[in-house]
Design brief:
The chain is mainly alpha-helical. The protein is built from seven helices and no strands.
Amino acid sequence: MNDIRPLRTLEDYDWAVCEVEKYFVSPPGPDTQEQDRFDILCDLIDAYDNKHHPLPEADPIDVIAAYMQEHGLKRRDLADIIGSKARATEVLERIRPLSLSMIQKIAASWIIPADLLIRPYHIDRQDVPDVPVGDAA
């Protein structure tokens, strides 16, 4: 553990990520120095990310749209997860709110943390009844 150091530069960050990746191939045993090293490196990486690449307080639709853009996905890809192209369009255009079922499916399929998808957000259509999350199809 003598080589652990603050992550001040991108090179430091890249080094820490490479060190952590080794543990994905061969996980450290519980209650060992290697487990402590892994935990410390993960904390340092997380702190660096939060300082240098803070996540904006994006609403769920912005999160989904950014994920889709970053991964080259189309509405059809979202439709495959939540049931129909029309539903995907309504969600992305803020006409239909995300249901709990949709949130669960998106989080599981695209590995997006559910807490980013459950935040309140504005629905543009006023004639959509207020439906509690989890009840809208």
